[in-house]
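Hello forum,

I keep getting stuck at the same step: I have a sequence, I want structure tokens, and every attempt I make locally crashes halfway through. Rather than fight my setup again tonight, could one of you with a working pipeline run this one for me? It's a single chain of 328 residues.
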Amino acid sequence: ENGEDPRLPEQVSVYQFKEFLKDPFVFRVGQMMQIEDEREDPEKTEFEPVLVDKLQETVLRRMLLAQMLGVFENDHLTTWEDIRTYALSKGLLPKGAFSERIWNDILDETKCWANLIVGLYRKPDFRYGRKTVELKMNGWTLLGTIPLYVQNDRCIHLIDTAGVEIHQYHFLTGYVQALALICEAGQKNEPVPEIFIDCYSKKIWQAKPVRRTLVEAELLLEKIYRKMFAVQMDTSGKWERYSKVLPIDMVSENKVESYDDYIKAFNDENHSPWKYFAGAKLFDIKKVSGFPEKYFMDLWNKECQDLKELTPDLWTSDVIGGTVADPD
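Reply #2:
Ran it on my machine without issues. Output:
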């Protein structure tokens, strides 16, 4: 008996892939507790479920940016006023005195991005659009939506936004989407376009290329899928699904030099990797991390390397970018 679990899901969303790569433990807790707000199901609105104010702003910015670039989520959300009404009804904008000011700030910032993107990717050379992902893999299907992309005959730019700073996790959704687009082109015997993941923050923008062949892209998606859902033997000999506390931003910041560094990071409320994890206070990091104190650095380095091998294009220095004009 190898403990292999035959109950692997037949449908998986891009959002689930992103959540797993961002932090496997938080993803697993969400799965077990089904922490998903039905109204903001990522497969229905294509935007992330709302947990805190920062994410609410992110959802709103993405909708506005797409609208400003002529890409509409649906026929009912084609004007700023439509989006504002929707945002108020969904709690994405607070009602009352601050509503106007917050709305205007978000509008101004988003206009800066829209102007920058239109300058970078000029029509009619570039086409703007949105696209549904439904990729048939080996016994399972990857589902999702690309809310905003820009394309010409040679390349596709997948557009996403961040708040004040750009973090590694901001590129994860685009990365999974890029692998899916490469697989899709390959399955249809079409040429694989050059794909960039673009991320725009208040201060800077960055674009990372994803350069994979069909075979490489398929293999990476299969490997991530297996790591997410297959039962594996852990270091203590127990069969279970992978759920180590491995936040991708901790890996990219590369500041962990000891077990104490790792534990301390989670006790710093302002900068904890679990700052936006609703269940953070329910768990003792020492008990759930999946990293024993003994041989910690060896195991930590191995897990970091494994994560980088699942997301190789995010770790190269091959990045283009620039600054974003101040809305004032």
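Residues 35-52 have pLDDT under 50 and may be disordered. If your local run keeps crashing, start a new thread with the error log.
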